[in-house]
Structure to design on (517 residues):
Protein backbone atom coordinates (compact mmCIF):
# COMPACT_ATOMS: atom_id res chain seq x y z
CA UNK A 1 0.00 0.00 0.00
CA UNK A 2 2.96 2.25 0.75
CA UNK A 3 4.11 2.43 -2.84
CA UNK A 4 0.96 2.88 -4.87
CA UNK A 5 2.66 3.98 -8.07
CA UNK A 6 5.04 1.03 -8.28
CA UNK A 7 2.14 -1.25 -7.41
CA UNK A 8 0.15 -0.08 -10.42
CA UNK A 9 3.24 -0.21 -12.63
CA UNK A 10 4.00 -3.80 -11.64
CA UNK A 11 0.34 -4.74 -12.02
CA UNK A 12 0.19 -3.53 -15.62
CA UNK A 13 3.57 -5.09 -16.33
CA UNK A 14 2.44 -8.46 -15.00
CA UNK A 15 -0.73 -8.31 -17.09
CA UNK A 16 1.38 -7.62 -20.18
CA UNK A 17 3.79 -10.44 -19.30
CA UNK A 18 0.81 -12.70 -18.77
CA UNK A 19 -0.27 -11.99 -22.35
CA UNK A 20 3.03 -13.33 -23.56
CA UNK A 21 4.71 -9.98 -24.21
CA UNK A 22 8.50 -9.97 -23.83
CA UNK A 23 10.05 -8.13 -20.90
CA UNK A 24 11.62 -5.33 -22.94
CA UNK A 25 8.43 -4.70 -24.93
CA UNK A 26 6.43 -4.57 -21.69
CA UNK A 27 8.80 -1.90 -20.36
CA UNK A 28 8.44 0.00 -23.63
CA UNK A 29 4.62 -0.11 -23.46
CA UNK A 30 4.79 1.12 -19.86
CA UNK A 31 6.97 4.02 -21.00
CA UNK A 32 4.49 4.93 -23.74
CA UNK A 33 1.64 4.82 -21.21
CA UNK A 34 3.65 6.88 -18.74
CA UNK A 35 4.51 9.60 -21.22
CA UNK A 36 0.93 9.79 -22.52
CA UNK A 37 -0.25 10.08 -18.91
CA UNK A 38 2.14 12.97 -18.17
CA UNK A 39 1.10 14.82 -21.35
CA UNK A 40 -2.60 14.32 -20.71
CA UNK A 41 -2.22 15.46 -17.10
CA UNK A 42 -0.48 18.60 -18.42
CA UNK A 43 -3.45 19.35 -20.69
CA UNK A 44 -6.00 18.72 -17.94
CA UNK A 45 -4.07 20.95 -15.54
CA UNK A 46 -4.01 23.73 -18.13
CA UNK A 47 -7.78 23.52 -18.54
CA UNK A 48 -8.11 24.00 -14.79
CA UNK A 49 -5.41 26.67 -14.68
CA UNK A 50 -7.11 28.83 -17.30
CA UNK A 51 -10.20 28.97 -15.12
CA UNK A 52 -8.18 29.63 -11.95
CA UNK A 53 -6.15 32.35 -13.64
CA UNK A 54 -9.22 34.12 -15.06
CA UNK A 55 -11.06 33.92 -11.77
CA UNK A 56 -8.01 35.23 -9.91
CA UNK A 57 -7.54 38.02 -12.45
CA UNK A 58 -11.18 38.93 -11.99
CA UNK A 59 -10.86 39.05 -8.22
CA UNK A 60 -7.64 41.08 -8.25
CA UNK A 61 -9.08 43.55 -10.76
CA UNK A 62 -12.30 43.86 -8.77
CA UNK A 63 -14.65 42.08 -11.17
CA UNK A 64 -16.32 38.68 -11.23
CA UNK A 65 -14.35 36.77 -13.84
CA UNK A 66 -16.11 33.88 -15.59
CA UNK A 67 -19.39 33.27 -13.76
CA UNK A 68 -21.94 32.08 -16.33
CA UNK A 69 -21.02 28.54 -17.40
CA UNK A 70 -21.78 26.35 -14.38
CA UNK A 71 -21.31 27.22 -10.69
CA UNK A 72 -18.58 29.87 -10.36
CA UNK A 73 -18.04 29.51 -14.10
CA UNK A 74 -16.03 26.30 -13.73
CA UNK A 75 -17.22 25.04 -17.12
CA UNK A 76 -15.98 28.17 -18.89
CA UNK A 77 -12.81 26.43 -20.10
CA UNK A 78 -14.82 23.55 -21.55
CA UNK A 79 -17.07 25.98 -23.39
CA UNK A 80 -13.95 27.66 -24.75
CA UNK A 81 -12.57 24.31 -25.89
CA UNK A 82 -15.76 23.44 -27.78
CA UNK A 83 -15.76 26.86 -29.40
CA UNK A 84 -12.11 26.76 -30.37
CA UNK A 85 -12.36 23.27 -31.88
CA UNK A 86 -15.16 24.36 -34.21
CA UNK A 87 -13.53 27.57 -35.41
CA UNK A 88 -12.38 28.00 -38.97
CA UNK A 89 -8.68 28.10 -39.76
CA UNK A 90 -7.71 31.24 -41.65
CA UNK A 91 -4.38 31.41 -43.43
CA UNK A 92 -3.52 34.95 -44.51
CA UNK A 93 -2.43 35.65 -48.07
CA UNK A 94 1.30 35.42 -48.62
CA UNK A 95 1.96 33.36 -45.49
CA UNK A 96 4.67 30.72 -45.52
CA UNK A 97 2.26 27.79 -45.17
CA UNK A 98 4.74 25.23 -43.85
CA UNK A 99 6.27 27.33 -41.09
CA UNK A 100 2.89 28.90 -40.32
CA UNK A 101 1.38 25.49 -39.54
CA UNK A 102 4.36 23.98 -37.73
CA UNK A 103 4.86 26.92 -35.33
CA UNK A 104 1.90 26.23 -32.95
CA UNK A 105 2.80 22.56 -32.64
CA UNK A 106 6.43 23.47 -31.97
CA UNK A 107 5.40 26.01 -29.33
CA UNK A 108 3.45 23.33 -27.49
CA UNK A 109 6.18 20.73 -28.01
CA UNK A 110 8.86 22.95 -26.48
CA UNK A 111 6.92 23.21 -23.24
CA UNK A 112 5.61 19.65 -23.06
CA UNK A 113 8.95 18.00 -23.77
CA UNK A 114 10.51 19.56 -20.66
CA UNK A 115 8.23 17.37 -18.54
CA UNK A 116 10.09 14.26 -19.71
CA UNK A 117 12.87 14.62 -17.13
CA UNK A 118 10.98 15.82 -14.06
CA UNK A 119 11.20 13.73 -10.90
CA UNK A 120 7.66 13.44 -9.55
CA UNK A 121 8.52 11.35 -6.49
CA UNK A 122 11.38 9.31 -5.08
CA UNK A 123 10.99 6.46 -7.56
CA UNK A 124 8.77 8.16 -10.14
CA UNK A 125 11.24 9.79 -12.46
CA UNK A 126 10.57 9.87 -16.18
CA UNK A 127 13.87 10.00 -17.98
CA UNK A 128 16.44 10.24 -15.20
CA UNK A 129 19.30 11.27 -17.50
CA UNK A 130 22.69 12.61 -16.42
CA UNK A 131 22.29 15.82 -18.43
CA UNK A 132 18.80 16.74 -17.22
CA UNK A 133 19.50 20.45 -16.75
CA UNK A 134 21.14 20.74 -20.15
CA UNK A 135 18.13 18.97 -21.69
CA UNK A 136 15.74 21.48 -20.11
CA UNK A 137 17.77 24.44 -21.38
CA UNK A 138 18.05 22.97 -24.87
CA UNK A 139 14.37 22.07 -25.25
CA UNK A 140 13.26 25.38 -23.75
CA UNK A 141 14.97 27.23 -26.60
CA UNK A 142 12.52 25.69 -29.08
CA UNK A 143 9.85 28.02 -27.71
CA UNK A 144 11.72 31.08 -29.01
CA UNK A 145 12.11 29.39 -32.37
CA UNK A 146 8.36 28.78 -32.51
CA UNK A 147 7.62 32.43 -31.79
CA UNK A 148 10.06 33.55 -34.47
CA UNK A 149 8.57 31.12 -36.98
CA UNK A 150 5.05 32.27 -36.19
CA UNK A 151 5.91 35.94 -36.45
CA UNK A 152 7.96 35.68 -39.60
CA UNK A 153 5.65 33.38 -41.53
CA UNK A 154 2.42 35.30 -40.82
CA UNK A 155 3.20 37.95 -43.45
CA UNK A 156 2.16 40.64 -41.01
CA UNK A 157 4.31 43.59 -40.01
CA UNK A 158 3.13 43.64 -36.43
CA UNK A 159 3.72 39.93 -36.01
CA UNK A 160 7.21 40.36 -37.45
CA UNK A 161 7.96 43.21 -35.08
CA UNK A 162 6.72 41.11 -32.19
CA UNK A 163 8.96 38.22 -33.26
CA UNK A 164 11.96 40.55 -33.44
CA UNK A 165 11.21 41.78 -29.97
CA UNK A 166 11.14 38.21 -28.80
CA UNK A 167 14.66 37.77 -30.20
CA UNK A 168 15.89 40.74 -28.23
CA UNK A 169 14.05 39.84 -25.06
CA UNK A 170 13.64 36.08 -24.68
CA UNK A 171 17.19 35.21 -25.63
CA UNK A 172 18.56 38.00 -23.45
CA UNK A 173 16.75 36.66 -20.42
CA UNK A 174 17.89 33.14 -21.22
CA UNK A 175 21.43 34.05 -20.10
CA UNK A 176 20.70 34.91 -16.44
CA UNK A 177 18.28 31.98 -16.35
CA UNK A 178 20.94 29.49 -17.41
CA UNK A 179 23.60 31.00 -15.16
CA UNK A 180 21.32 30.91 -12.13
CA UNK A 181 20.50 27.29 -13.01
CA UNK A 182 24.22 26.59 -12.71
CA UNK A 183 24.06 27.33 -8.99
CA UNK A 184 21.85 24.34 -8.00
CA UNK A 185 23.95 22.18 -10.35
CA UNK A 186 27.04 23.41 -8.58
CA UNK A 187 25.61 22.77 -5.11
CA UNK A 188 24.48 19.25 -5.97
CA UNK A 189 27.55 18.46 -8.13
CA UNK A 190 25.23 16.86 -10.66
CA UNK A 191 23.00 17.73 -13.60
CA UNK A 192 20.65 14.85 -12.77
CA UNK A 193 17.37 16.33 -11.57
CA UNK A 194 16.67 13.53 -9.07
CA UNK A 195 20.11 14.09 -7.49
CA UNK A 196 19.55 17.86 -7.37
CA UNK A 197 16.25 17.30 -5.54
CA UNK A 198 17.71 14.84 -3.05
CA UNK A 199 20.80 16.97 -2.40
CA UNK A 200 18.74 19.86 -1.04
CA UNK A 201 19.15 19.39 2.69
CA UNK A 202 17.60 22.72 3.49
CA UNK A 203 15.88 23.83 0.30
CA UNK A 204 18.09 25.62 -2.19
CA UNK A 205 16.08 28.78 -1.75
CA UNK A 206 17.77 29.14 1.67
CA UNK A 207 21.23 28.22 0.40
CA UNK A 208 21.06 30.27 -2.80
CA UNK A 209 18.27 32.83 -2.47
CA UNK A 210 19.86 35.18 -5.00
CA UNK A 211 19.97 32.50 -7.70
CA UNK A 212 16.32 31.70 -6.96
CA UNK A 213 15.40 35.37 -7.31
CA UNK A 214 17.28 35.78 -10.60
CA UNK A 215 15.82 32.56 -11.93
CA UNK A 216 12.34 33.68 -10.93
CA UNK A 217 12.61 37.06 -12.66
CA UNK A 218 14.25 35.78 -15.82
CA UNK A 219 11.94 32.82 -16.24
CA UNK A 220 8.96 35.14 -15.79
CA UNK A 221 10.38 37.06 -18.73
CA UNK A 222 10.79 33.78 -20.61
CA UNK A 223 7.09 33.07 -20.18
CA UNK A 224 6.39 36.45 -21.73
CA UNK A 225 3.72 37.53 -19.30
CA UNK A 226 3.32 40.95 -17.71
CA UNK A 227 5.39 42.88 -16.67
CA UNK A 228 7.48 41.38 -19.48
CA UNK A 229 4.69 40.92 -22.05
CA UNK A 230 6.29 43.11 -24.70
CA UNK A 231 6.03 40.49 -27.38
CA UNK A 232 2.28 40.62 -27.27
CA UNK A 233 1.65 44.18 -26.17
CA UNK A 234 -1.91 44.64 -27.39
CA UNK A 235 -1.81 48.39 -27.56
CA UNK A 236 1.33 48.42 -29.70
CA UNK A 237 1.35 45.23 -31.77
CA UNK A 238 -2.30 44.31 -32.50
CA UNK A 239 -1.95 40.96 -30.69
CA UNK A 240 1.68 40.03 -31.10
CA UNK A 241 3.23 37.14 -32.98
CA UNK A 242 -0.05 35.19 -33.12
CA UNK A 243 -2.13 37.97 -34.69
CA UNK A 244 -2.90 35.95 -37.82
CA UNK A 245 -3.69 32.67 -36.06
CA UNK A 246 -7.21 31.45 -35.50
CA UNK A 247 -8.95 28.48 -33.96
CA UNK A 248 -6.91 25.72 -32.42
CA UNK A 249 -3.63 27.05 -33.85
CA UNK A 250 -4.07 30.13 -31.70
CA UNK A 251 -5.27 27.83 -28.93
CA UNK A 252 -1.96 25.99 -28.99
CA UNK A 253 -0.06 29.23 -28.37
CA UNK A 254 -2.48 30.12 -25.60
CA UNK A 255 -2.22 26.72 -23.92
CA UNK A 256 1.56 26.70 -24.36
CA UNK A 257 1.79 30.03 -22.55
CA UNK A 258 -0.21 28.78 -19.57
CA UNK A 259 1.67 25.50 -19.48
CA UNK A 260 4.97 27.36 -19.73
CA UNK A 261 4.06 29.35 -16.64
CA UNK A 262 3.19 26.11 -14.86
CA UNK A 263 6.44 24.55 -16.07
CA UNK A 264 8.40 27.47 -14.68
CA UNK A 265 6.68 26.78 -11.37
CA UNK A 266 7.78 23.15 -11.65
CA UNK A 267 11.38 24.13 -12.43
CA UNK A 268 11.39 26.52 -9.50
CA UNK A 269 10.01 23.75 -7.28
CA UNK A 270 12.63 21.25 -8.42
CA UNK A 271 15.67 23.50 -8.31
CA UNK A 272 14.92 25.72 -5.33
CA UNK A 273 11.99 24.36 -3.31
CA UNK A 274 13.06 20.76 -2.90
CA UNK A 275 10.91 19.13 -5.59
CA UNK A 276 8.96 16.19 -4.17
CA UNK A 277 10.66 16.28 -0.74
CA UNK A 278 8.47 16.86 2.27
CA UNK A 279 7.29 15.07 5.39
CA UNK A 280 6.76 11.33 4.80
CA UNK A 281 7.44 11.68 1.05
CA UNK A 282 10.09 8.95 1.18
CA UNK A 283 7.75 6.40 2.75
CA UNK A 284 4.75 7.22 0.61
CA UNK A 285 5.94 8.31 -2.85
CA UNK A 286 2.40 9.29 -3.80
CA UNK A 287 2.68 12.11 -1.25
CA UNK A 288 5.78 13.29 -3.08
CA UNK A 289 3.73 13.73 -6.25
CA UNK A 290 1.27 15.88 -4.32
CA UNK A 291 4.06 17.95 -2.79
CA UNK A 292 5.61 18.47 -6.21
CA UNK A 293 2.38 19.61 -7.83
CA UNK A 294 1.48 21.65 -4.76
CA UNK A 295 4.74 23.60 -4.82
CA UNK A 296 4.41 24.05 -8.58
CA UNK A 297 0.92 25.41 -8.20
CA UNK A 298 2.03 27.75 -5.43
CA UNK A 299 4.75 29.26 -7.64
CA UNK A 300 2.23 29.49 -10.48
CA UNK A 301 -0.09 31.54 -8.28
CA UNK A 302 2.77 33.80 -7.17
CA UNK A 303 3.71 34.47 -10.80
CA UNK A 304 0.06 35.21 -11.62
CA UNK A 305 -0.14 37.56 -8.67
CA UNK A 306 2.98 39.45 -9.81
CA UNK A 307 1.76 39.65 -13.38
CA UNK A 308 -1.61 41.00 -12.35
CA UNK A 309 -0.10 43.61 -10.06
CA UNK A 310 2.58 45.20 -12.22
CA UNK A 311 2.29 47.30 -15.38
CA UNK A 312 4.27 46.54 -18.53
CA UNK A 313 7.81 47.92 -18.67
CA UNK A 314 9.38 49.65 -21.65
CA UNK A 315 11.70 47.72 -23.97
CA UNK A 316 14.85 49.71 -23.14
CA UNK A 317 14.17 49.43 -19.41
CA UNK A 318 13.66 45.74 -19.80
CA UNK A 319 16.88 45.20 -21.74
CA UNK A 320 18.85 47.38 -19.34
CA UNK A 321 17.49 45.44 -16.38
CA UNK A 322 18.79 42.29 -17.99
CA UNK A 323 22.16 43.32 -19.45
CA UNK A 324 23.22 45.85 -16.83
CA UNK A 325 21.84 44.23 -13.70
CA UNK A 326 20.77 40.59 -13.91
CA UNK A 327 23.65 39.24 -16.01
CA UNK A 328 26.49 40.88 -14.02
CA UNK A 329 24.91 40.00 -10.69
CA UNK A 330 24.32 36.40 -11.73
CA UNK A 331 27.94 36.03 -12.85
CA UNK A 332 29.23 37.46 -9.59
CA UNK A 333 26.85 35.22 -7.67
CA UNK A 334 28.09 32.17 -9.57
CA UNK A 335 31.75 32.99 -8.90
CA UNK A 336 31.11 33.67 -5.21
CA UNK A 337 29.08 30.50 -4.71
CA UNK A 338 31.62 28.36 -6.57
CA UNK A 339 34.59 29.62 -4.54
CA UNK A 340 32.71 29.51 -1.23
CA UNK A 341 31.47 25.99 -1.91
CA UNK A 342 34.93 24.72 -2.82
CA UNK A 343 36.70 26.43 0.09
CA UNK A 344 34.19 25.20 2.64
CA UNK A 345 34.45 21.66 1.27
CA UNK A 346 38.18 21.91 1.89
CA UNK A 347 37.63 22.68 5.57
CA UNK A 348 34.90 20.04 6.01
CA UNK A 349 32.59 22.38 7.92
CA UNK A 350 29.31 21.39 9.51
CA UNK A 351 26.25 21.63 7.24
CA UNK A 352 24.56 24.43 9.17
CA UNK A 353 27.66 26.67 9.05
CA UNK A 354 27.84 26.04 5.29
CA UNK A 355 24.20 27.04 4.84
CA UNK A 356 24.49 30.17 6.99
CA UNK A 357 27.65 31.37 5.22
CA UNK A 358 26.09 30.75 1.79
CA UNK A 359 22.95 32.63 2.78
CA UNK A 360 24.95 35.59 4.10
CA UNK A 361 27.11 35.73 0.95
CA UNK A 362 23.99 35.81 -1.22
CA UNK A 363 22.34 38.56 0.80
CA UNK A 364 25.59 40.56 0.81
CA UNK A 365 25.89 40.42 -2.99
CA UNK A 366 22.24 41.43 -3.40
CA UNK A 367 22.55 44.40 -1.05
CA UNK A 368 25.82 45.54 -2.65
CA UNK A 369 24.39 45.24 -6.15
CA UNK A 370 21.24 47.16 -5.23
CA UNK A 371 23.32 49.91 -3.61
CA UNK A 372 25.55 50.26 -6.67
CA UNK A 373 22.55 50.19 -9.00
CA UNK A 374 20.82 52.88 -6.97
CA UNK A 375 23.93 55.10 -7.06
CA UNK A 376 24.33 54.73 -10.83
CA UNK A 377 20.67 55.30 -11.59
CA UNK A 378 20.14 58.44 -13.58
CA UNK A 379 17.69 60.74 -11.94
CA UNK A 380 14.43 60.60 -13.86
CA UNK A 381 13.08 64.00 -14.70
CA UNK A 382 9.74 64.33 -13.08
CA UNK A 383 7.25 66.45 -14.93
CA UNK A 384 5.12 68.47 -12.57
CA UNK A 385 1.51 68.69 -13.64
CA UNK A 386 -0.38 71.81 -12.78
CA UNK A 387 -3.58 71.02 -10.91
CA UNK A 388 -6.40 70.47 -13.35
CA UNK A 389 -9.92 71.81 -12.82
CA UNK A 390 -12.17 69.08 -11.54
CA UNK A 391 -15.70 68.77 -12.83
CA UNK A 392 -18.15 69.55 -10.04
CA UNK A 393 -21.88 68.91 -10.42
CA UNK A 394 -23.96 72.12 -10.48
CA UNK A 395 -25.09 73.31 -7.08
CA UNK A 396 -22.19 71.60 -5.32
CA UNK A 397 -19.50 74.23 -5.96
CA UNK A 398 -17.58 75.24 -2.86
CA UNK A 399 -17.94 78.87 -2.04
CA UNK B 1 20.40 4.07 -18.29
CA UNK B 2 19.35 3.28 -21.84
CA UNK B 3 15.71 2.88 -20.83
CA UNK B 4 15.76 6.51 -19.67
CA UNK B 5 16.77 7.67 -23.13
CA UNK B 6 14.12 5.43 -24.72
CA UNK B 7 11.57 7.07 -22.44
CA UNK B 8 12.72 10.52 -23.56
CA UNK B 9 12.49 9.47 -27.20
CA UNK B 10 8.96 8.16 -26.62
CA UNK B 11 8.05 11.31 -24.74
CA UNK B 12 9.31 13.57 -27.54
CA UNK B 13 7.17 11.71 -30.06
CA UNK B 14 4.12 11.91 -27.78
CA UNK B 15 4.79 15.62 -27.20
CA UNK B 16 4.67 16.19 -30.97
CA UNK B 17 1.72 13.90 -31.69
CA UNK B 18 -0.67 15.21 -29.04
CA UNK B 19 -0.55 18.90 -30.15
CA UNK B 20 -0.59 17.77 -33.77
CA UNK B 21 -3.81 15.82 -33.21
CA UNK B 22 -5.32 18.81 -31.40
CA UNK B 23 -4.47 21.05 -34.35
CA UNK B 24 -5.76 18.52 -36.90
CA UNK B 25 -9.18 17.87 -35.29
CA UNK B 26 -10.69 21.22 -36.41
CA UNK B 27 -9.64 20.44 -40.00
CA UNK B 28 -12.42 17.84 -40.02
CA UNK B 29 -15.10 19.45 -37.84
CA UNK B 30 -14.67 23.19 -38.39
CA UNK B 31 -16.35 25.04 -41.29
CA UNK B 32 -14.28 26.02 -44.31
CA UNK B 33 -15.49 29.11 -46.13
CA UNK B 34 -12.43 30.99 -47.37
CA UNK B 35 -12.86 34.36 -49.01
CA UNK B 36 -10.43 37.03 -50.12
CA UNK B 37 -11.66 39.55 -47.55
CA UNK B 38 -11.21 37.02 -44.79
CA UNK B 39 -7.70 36.08 -45.79
CA UNK B 40 -6.45 39.64 -45.83
CA UNK B 41 -3.59 40.53 -43.51
CA UNK B 42 -4.98 41.96 -40.29
CA UNK B 43 -3.79 45.47 -39.64
CA UNK B 44 -6.79 46.87 -37.79
CA UNK B 45 -8.78 47.37 -40.98
CA UNK B 46 -6.12 49.24 -42.93
CA UNK B 47 -4.92 47.63 -46.15
CA UNK B 48 -1.29 46.56 -46.04
CA UNK B 49 0.90 48.40 -48.50
CA UNK B 50 4.30 47.42 -49.86
CA UNK B 51 6.63 44.60 -48.91
CA UNK B 52 6.07 43.08 -45.49
CA UNK B 53 9.66 41.99 -44.92
CA UNK B 54 10.85 45.48 -44.08
CA UNK B 55 14.24 46.48 -42.74
CA UNK B 56 14.69 46.42 -39.01
CA UNK B 57 16.68 48.07 -36.31
CA UNK B 58 20.00 46.22 -36.37
CA UNK B 59 20.11 46.29 -32.57
CA UNK B 60 17.91 43.21 -32.39
CA UNK B 61 20.57 41.19 -34.17
CA UNK B 62 23.41 42.59 -32.07
CA UNK B 63 21.63 41.32 -28.99
CA UNK B 64 21.30 37.95 -30.67
CA UNK B 65 25.03 37.90 -31.42
CA UNK B 66 26.01 38.72 -27.84
CA UNK B 67 23.57 36.10 -26.62
CA UNK B 68 25.36 33.52 -28.75
CA UNK B 69 28.68 34.19 -27.00
CA UNK B 70 27.19 33.73 -23.55
CA UNK B 71 25.14 30.72 -24.54
CA UNK B 72 28.22 28.87 -25.75
CA UNK B 73 30.05 29.92 -22.61
CA UNK B 74 27.44 28.32 -20.38
CA UNK B 75 27.85 25.02 -22.21
CA UNK B 76 31.48 25.04 -21.03
CA UNK B 77 30.46 26.02 -17.52
CA UNK B 78 28.04 23.13 -16.93
CA UNK B 79 30.72 20.38 -16.81
CA UNK B 80 32.86 22.63 -14.62
CA UNK B 81 29.99 23.08 -12.17
CA UNK B 82 29.32 19.33 -12.05
CA UNK B 83 32.94 18.41 -11.42
CA UNK B 84 33.54 21.19 -8.89
CA UNK B 85 33.59 18.87 -5.87
CA UNK B 86 36.39 16.73 -7.30
CA UNK B 87 38.48 19.48 -8.83
CA UNK B 88 41.55 20.89 -7.08
CA UNK B 89 41.14 24.47 -5.92
CA UNK B 90 43.42 25.61 -8.74
CA UNK B 91 40.98 24.32 -11.39
CA UNK B 92 38.16 26.15 -9.68
CA UNK B 93 40.14 29.39 -9.88
CA UNK B 94 40.82 28.67 -13.55
CA UNK B 95 37.08 28.37 -14.16
CA UNK B 96 36.57 31.67 -12.39
CA UNK B 97 39.19 33.31 -14.62
CA UNK B 98 37.34 31.96 -17.66
CA UNK B 99 34.12 33.58 -16.40
CA UNK B 100 35.93 36.84 -15.68
CA UNK B 101 37.36 37.00 -19.22
CA UNK B 102 33.88 36.67 -20.69
CA UNK B 103 32.59 39.14 -18.17
CA UNK B 104 35.21 41.57 -19.46
CA UNK B 105 33.68 41.06 -22.91
CA UNK B 106 30.32 42.12 -21.53
CA UNK B 107 31.85 45.21 -19.93
CA UNK B 108 33.57 46.04 -23.23
CA UNK B 109 30.28 45.73 -25.12
CA UNK B 110 28.63 47.93 -22.51
CA UNK B 111 31.37 50.61 -22.77
CA UNK B 112 31.11 50.55 -26.56
CA UNK B 113 27.46 51.44 -26.15
CA UNK B 114 26.25 48.32 -27.94
CA UNK B 115 23.82 47.45 -25.20
CA UNK B 116 22.20 50.86 -25.03
CA UNK B 117 18.80 50.93 -26.68
CA UNK B 118 18.61 54.20 -28.55
Amino acid sequence: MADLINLIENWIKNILLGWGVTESLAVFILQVLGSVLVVIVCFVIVIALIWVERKLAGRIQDRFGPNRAGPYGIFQSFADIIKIFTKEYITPVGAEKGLFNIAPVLAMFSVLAIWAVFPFAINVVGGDIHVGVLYIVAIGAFGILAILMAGWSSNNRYALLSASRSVAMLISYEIPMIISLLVPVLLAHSMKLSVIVEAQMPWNIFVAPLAALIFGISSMAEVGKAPFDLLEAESELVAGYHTEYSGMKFGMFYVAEFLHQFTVGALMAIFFLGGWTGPLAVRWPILGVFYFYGKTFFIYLVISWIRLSLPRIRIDEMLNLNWRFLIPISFINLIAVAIADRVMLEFNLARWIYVVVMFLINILILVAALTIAEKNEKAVERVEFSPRPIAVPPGKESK
Amino acid sequence: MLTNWVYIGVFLIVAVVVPLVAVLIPVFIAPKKPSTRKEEIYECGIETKGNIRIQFKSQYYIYALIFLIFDIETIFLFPWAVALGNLPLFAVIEGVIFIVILFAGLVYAMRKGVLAWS
